[in-house]
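Exercise 3.2. Students should predict the tertiary structure of the chain below and write it as structure tokens, then compare their answer with the key that follows.

Predict this chain's 3D structure.
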Amino acid sequence: MSKTESSSKARHTIRDIARVTGVSPKTVSFVLNDREGVAEQTRKRVLKAVKEMEYHPHAAARALRDRVTRSIGVIFPTTADAAPLSQSLLNWLHEEFIHIFGSRGYYVTFDMASYAGSRNGDYARGVWEQAFGPCFLAGPLALTDRVVPRLHERGVPYVAVTRLDSFPQCSAASVDYEQAACLSTRHLLEKGHTRIGLLQAFQGYQSGLERRRGYERALREAGLPVDASLIRPVTFDSHSIVNGVHALLSDRAVTALIDSSSTEDPVVLREGARRAGRRFGKDLEIVVWTYRYDTVVLPEACAHMCLPLRQASAEGLEHLAAWIEGRREGPIQILYQPTLLETPREAPFNDPLRVFHETA
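Answer key:
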């Protein structure tokens, strides 16, 4: 064999095999990777051509594909203004990935493009562009989300921190926000309140819908009407919280409040009440939501609702690793329950490790 002939054979590609055998490059790829969906006669014809043409896969391309399968993406399905993740949460998430995936030799990619608001709602570019395969969706899912079903259909292992009503098959490790809202409302109803305000975060997102649904369910169970004016959607801006509390408590008939804003900020809660001429623990009661069991956000509160989001996420990542390594199948379906803890008046104030921080 001449040097020229040998060099020519070394340059054969999948497209060359496809042309000789009369099939598509995709079919050749299926055969080379031993995937289903190719007729046996076609498979034999392709393998014969591979042998005769002395085709060898491109080493660099194969290495790139192998790297992709060993890469895990951290995706932010919403923008920073809608879900401003705190530095403490991002640090914790980084530590969890080191703990779970570090010894396994995986690459981890944080894709910040969607968080900066530059992807027009399609936050899974890392999967489509093969920067990584398996992924963790770190943030709330919009009610209009159309990306999760595409990820699901793609067959890549993934886990989100929010469920999705529009796609019940969604692989998720989350907290039951609906139950949290229901328990918060029941607690205040049992204390004799009938006009209860709700500070509702994540308007337009699944976790926001669950908050409202749980609140309304508890009222209906008690035989009380739902007054939409008592539900105040808020953002993570401190002015939004202050104005929301002020607006709700300006109605003197409102004697209780549920803070499901996820801000864990006692200063803005007190300021909103002060502007309305009200005081927590005096002429009104409040249930405050927090993401830690050992934190008292507002000592004047009659109860704290603890949402174990970090624990759910950690378990979700463990299951994601098992799914990637073939030790379990997807989807992941984990739902942690909230815990209501009555707040002792003498409890010290502990600064929470916040999941979200204030937006500018």
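Discussion points: Residues 206-221 form the longest helix (16 residues). Residues 1-10 have pLDDT under 50 and may be disordered.
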